[in-house]
């Protein structure tokens, strides 16, 4: 199967599952009797273990040829882990399975992104277009699951995820052409330790950690907050879907309108959007303002992520792509996000919407952090 089709289907399956998990997993936990503080701790623990999972798994990938088999086995083990949630709702069981599932399943994100960036270099893949296929699947999932929660019950959150994981397992075993391989003359993949010695990479990781982890309150507690404000699961699903529609628009516009924007410009735009969005969500639950806040997802996540891809594909040597992708997922989308998720869980009952205002403060340092340009990579997105 051609690289574009394979990755479009794989991202579609992965983000369908993520579209059920990210907006609604807190509601599934609430539905089985877990308290807000325990939800925050479970979500935070899950995000924290991603750090170890991303680093340990990605460190074992010695070259591009390992990406496809690792993707396939991670898909299988992810399915088995989430099936485990059917067997018990005891807190100790939930903690254990949360750690296991989040050690395995989220690692598919950096592995899939590494496959995509490899195809950018190897087959001139249009990253923006293939990535927006995942965003479309996220919309379908968040809309569908929101309606199921309203009309059938929160137990369908897990059902939808398991169905999506079955599809992802089947799709991942389809052949991929061209197969990922190291480019002739390319040096062996750099180690994580060697990659972290680069001051530019460290500055990049700090910037992306601040931008992405500022979404902690949104990812963990927006559904609970909006439900408490009187919105149904269907409306919450539509709001999440709207955010991803805006994200799709940003990815689709990238190649045509944003190619002259460098990583630094995209990061600053992302930071401005974060401040505006979290101030909005922290001060009102009026539907019109929530719609505007969700449209800003195109900036807070979309531009920030495009900035990260721009940095990795234009400003890194090829041997640092996989380790930097791993560190980006482990730190910005794992460890730092986990810490803020736990903080939000402990503060939500007292601050409620005020936790979004704290997220606005998180991104302020981005305006003052800069990194020096480095050698342009072999390919650009």
UniProtKB/TrEMBL annotation:
Note one Pfam family from the annotation: MFS_1_like
GO MF:
lactose binding; lactose:proton symporter activity
A single GO CC term for this protein reads: plasma membrane
Q: How does it sit in the membrane?
A: Multi-pass membrane protein
**Parts forming coiled coils:** none
Q: Which SUPFAM superfamilies match?
A: MFS general substrate transporter
Gene3D superfamilies the record matches: MFS general substrate transporter like domains (1.20.1250.20)
Please name the InterPro entries in this protein's record. HcaT-like, MFS_assoc_dom, MFS_trans_sf
Its keywords, alphabetically, are: Cell inner membrane, Cell membrane, Membrane, Transmembrane, Transmembrane helix, Transport
Localization terms from the record: Cell inner membrane
Annotated Major facilitator superfamily associated domain residues:
7-348
Q: Where are the transmembrane segments?
A: 39-58, 70-87, 93-111, 132-150, 156-179, 200-221, 233-253, 265-281, 287-306, 327-348, 354-371
Q: PANTHER family given for it?
A: 3-PHENYLPROPIONIC ACID TRANSPORTER-RELATED, BLL5896 PROTEIN
- NCBIfam families given in the database record: mfs, PRK11128.1
UniProt-recorded name of the protein: 3-phenylpropionate MFS transporter
Q: Which organism is it from?
A: Aeromonas cavernicola
């Amino acid at each position: 199967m051609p690289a574009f089709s394979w990755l479009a289907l794989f991202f579609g399956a992965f983000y369908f599952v993520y579209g059920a998990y990210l907006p609604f997993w807190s509601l599934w936990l609430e539905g089985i009797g877990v308290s807000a503080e325990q939800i925050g701790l479970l979500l935070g623990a899950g995000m924290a273990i991603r750090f170890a999972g991303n680093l340990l798994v990605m460190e074992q990938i010695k070259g591009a040829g390992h990406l496809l088999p690792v993707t396939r086995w991670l898909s299988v083990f992810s399915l088995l882990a989430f099936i485990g949630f059917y067997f018990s709702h005891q807190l100790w069981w939930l903690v254990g399975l949360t750690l296991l599932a989040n050690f395995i399943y989220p690692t598919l994100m950096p592995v899939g992104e590494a496959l995509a960036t490899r195809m950018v270099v190897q087959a001139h893949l249009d990253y923006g277009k293939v990535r927006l296929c995942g965003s479309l699947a996220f919309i379908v999932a968040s809309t569908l699951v929101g309606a199921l929660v309203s009309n059938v019950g929160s137990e369908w959150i897990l059902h939808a995820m398991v169905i999506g994981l079955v599809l992802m397992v089947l799709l991942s075993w389809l052949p991929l052409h061209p197969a990922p391989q190291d480019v002739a003359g390319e040096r062996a993949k750099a180690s994580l330790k060697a990659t972290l010695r680069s001051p530019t990479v460290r500055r990049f990781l700090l910037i992306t950690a601040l931008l992405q982890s500022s979404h902690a309150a949104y990812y963990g507690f927006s559904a609970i907050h909006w439900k408490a404000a009187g919105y149904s699961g269907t409306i919450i699903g539509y709001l999440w879907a709207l955010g991803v529609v805006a994200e799709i628009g940003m990815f689709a516009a990238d190649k045509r309108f944003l190619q002259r924007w460098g990583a630094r410009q995209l990061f600053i735009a992302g930071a401005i959007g974060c401040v505006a969005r979290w101030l909005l969500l922290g001060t009102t639950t009026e539907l019109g303002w929530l719609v505007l806040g969700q449209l800003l997802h195109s900036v807070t996540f979309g531009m920030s992520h495009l900035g990260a891809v721009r940095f990795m594909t234009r400003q890194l040597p090829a041997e640092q792509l996989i380790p930097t992708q791993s560190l980006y997922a482990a730190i910005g989308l794992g460890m730092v996000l986990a810490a803020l998720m736990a903080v939000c869980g402990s503060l939500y009952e007292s601050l409620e919407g005020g936790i979004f205002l704290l997220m606005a403060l998180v991104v302020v340092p981005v305006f003052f952090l800069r990194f020096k340009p480095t050698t342009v990579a072999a390919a650009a997105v």
